[in-house]
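Case 677 in the screening queue. Each case pairs one protein sequence with one candidate compound; here the compound is 4-O-methyl-beta-D-glucopyranuronic acid. For every case the pipeline is the same: read the inputs, emit a complex structure as tokens, and attach any notable structural observations.

Predict complex for case 677.
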Amino acid sequence: SNDGYKLWLQYYKIDNPQSWQIDKLTQYKVNGSSPTLDIIQGEIQRASQGFFSPKPEGSSKNPKLLISKISDLDQKGFLLDSHKIKELGPDGFAIQELGDKQNDKTTLITANTDIGLLYGTFHLLQMIQRNTPVPKEGVFQSPKIQHRVLNHWDNLDRTVERGYSGFSIWNWHRLPRHIDQQYHDYARANASIGINGTVLTNVNANSLVLTPEYLEKVKALADVFRPYGIKVYLTARFSSPIEIGKLSTADPLNGEVQNWWKDKAKEVYEYIPDFGGFVVKADSEGQPGPHNYGRTQADGANMLADALKPFGGIVMWRAFVYSENTPDDRHKQAYNEFKPLDGLFRDNVIVQVKNGAIDFQPREPFHPMFGAMPKTPLMMEFQITQEYLGHDTHMAFLAPMYEEVLREDTFANGKGSEVSKVIDGSLHSNSITAMAGVANIGTDRNWTGHHFHQANWFAYGRLAWNPNESSEKIADEWLRLTFTNDDDFVTPIRKIMLGSREMVVNYMTPLGLHHIMARSHHYGPGPWVTGGSRADWTSTYYHQASEQGIGFDRTSSGSNALAQYAKELQTNWGNLNSIPEEYLLWFHHVPWDHQLKNGDTLWEGLAKHYQKGVDEARSNIKTWESIKNKIDGERFAHTLSFMKIQAEEAQWWRDACLLYFGQFSKMPLPQGVEQPL
Ligand code: GCW
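Case 677 output:
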């Protein structure tokens, strides 16, 4: 079956549909005409065909659903005052019920733009599928973040860096002549959760994508995505002027180089008039950048920004910069490099910062750059693909992780300066805002490998739209849209989802441990990983285990990375008694017999966390087996087999880590923790 392919847009049959559900989708009218409005019509037809069977006849004479831009309404914005209309902005929408009698109601979806209407339509369809009527007071939504983009780490040969769901869905060979239906389905899925940008190529970039041969293909994709409100972006390899421009340098202060980029930008916009802009990884992990010429990150970013400026493009300049020879705690390097450049970036540059200072670990404290650069817009980069969280086979619902970071207080302007407010621009009044999610999408029939990893794509979109959305609501809605409204399914499985990321933290890296995965592919345990080309690509660098204790001292007696955070956090996290235990070994090196809050020694606590993760992975299997008859057999079996892998590997993690660390602690395992095999 292709249920997996349909993601959260299943449009499965609604049992005993009510007239409020049927009428809207059979008696509707869409004002005006445009490719986006055609998509809206098509989506409603698709949904009503799925929801109702046999499909009821309808008419548009007395519409029960009217979809219209505010400017196309007879009485302009007759329901909304001008203030509300302005608040909706370019992407927002309103859904309101007109008339008082239950059966005589007309639902109105309005927006300032066609794209707003598309978002409103998807919203209403999702409410109908979830049997949730439009509330009396209506629904008013507009995104808190302007650029809600996916980053594909997709190479031109269709391999995907850190991709675990098959190959890249961009079939460069067949483009531009063949347009696969999958491109439309990809765009539909993104539009249905408010994603409005896609970076097609890997940040470890290939400059060939900027040549005419590829721009033609990129244009073909951009043409598909446009009516769904999705802009295309590309990664720009910093040395492109040399590689495809035949210049001898890529120095950002060189006039020839600057002109080359200006011409290149002009050329790109001839193909794609609404091109979003460039994403750049420079001076990081072997990528070329301004450092090669003794220039700063601002010099590099500004050169590209100047080239894009006349066409309205932006530069997303990544802050994932750390030295080739690890002179200092890697945690500190991006901050040290970027903080002095605050205020020096052009107004069409936004600095793209990973959620934490190391690298997409199962848990990281928020990146200290958030809140530290009041004069520079910063965007969040989350990883949706699970490089460090068990790749395709381990279920980890990531919304709680995203939420945790977004809710952290930076104290930049005193209490209440959450990361989310840095990102949505409200804390420092930034005029440009964005969020990026490193995609987990590939050619697998269900797009994401694990069926439940579709939820992470979904959750990312929802949190980019509204960083204050709750994980619980997101999980609930995703389950209902993707599987069934049956509470006997939704309630237990929602619980599994919501606990799954903490479960992974428990069996991989509890109490603030990090980066102890196997070398380079990062799948499975590897706390013993040491040696090799650089210290900060080993595990021993991060856990520092010895007979004396374990953990990375980032206080003033150690690397003092802690000093990059606000005073309030330095006090709180710097103190062994007040630091939340989930960050303990991130910031402190502590002895094995250090006493935890519950009285256990550190060693006992560590062992119990590992065991807890294993226990949960096992009990999830039982819960899943108990809902067997609630969903289709194929997705049931697929998920079950992955859950079994996860439980086995949770045990692998526990055994490996406890055996390895036990050599140092030399302490017995506490009661309740199984002896490693
Ligand atoms: O997470 C690390 C990955 C690299 C990746 C890099 C980055 C695209 O291991 O594969 O490269 O980060 O974010 O640039």
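Case 677 observations:
- The chain has three domains: 19-141, 147-470, 505-552+589-665.
- The radius of gyration is 26 Å.
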